[in-house]
Amino acid sequence: MTMSGWRLIGIIASIIWFFGFGVLLWNQFVEDALAPYAQDLKICSAIEEYSDEFWQTNARDSVELSEKLQVNQDQYERCASKAKLQWESERPSDSVLAIAVLVIDLVTIALGWLILWGCVALGRWVRRRFAAN
User: Fold this and answer.
1) In this structure, are residues 32 and 96 in contact, taking their beta carbons and an 8 Å threshold?
2) Could you give the angle at the alpha carbon of 115 between the alpha carbons of 111 and 121, nearest 5°?
3) pLDDT in tens, 18-71
4) Nearest-CA neighbor of 34 among 73, 111, 87, 113?
5) Total structural domains in the chain?
6) What predicted TM-score, i.e. pTM, was given to this entire model?
7) pLDDT digits (tens, 9 = 90+) for 80-118
8) Domain of residue 126, residue span
9) Which residue, of 18, 33, 84, 101, has the greatest Cβ tally within 10 A?
10) What does the alpha-carbon distance between residue 82 and residue 73 come to, in Å, rounded to a whole number?
11) Cβ contacts of 116 within 8 Å, gap of 6 or more
12) Contact, 14 vs 106, CB < 8 A?
């Protein structure tokens, strides 16, 4: 296979890397961005669950239980809404994430090409040294 054949393989591998690694990196960034919101929702849910359990055990009658469960539901909705507002105000924009993914993706491809080029140059240098002897 000629050197242009190797370059073609490198270009195809780079394209596969660009999309594969880019998707993987994007999913990781999105997951990391969603983590604080998911954690806050878990906290809201846990509070509602414990409060519901408390009132199911300690309510005097079904009317009080119904009122307390409705209050718990309202508190959960306020908690979830507050968590969403906080998350939306603190999360990085999608364009910033996309630029970060693009830069990291392109830098890894450039480093890969640089390392391979260095290995080829070193191999040629070693071959010339041994051919001279």
Assistant:
1) no
2) 140
3) 999 999 999 999 999 899 999 999 999 999 999 999 988 888 888 998 999 999
4) 87
5) 1
6) 0.69
7) 999 999 999 988 888 999 999 999 999 999 999 999 999
8) 3-132
9) 101
10) 14
11) 10
12) no
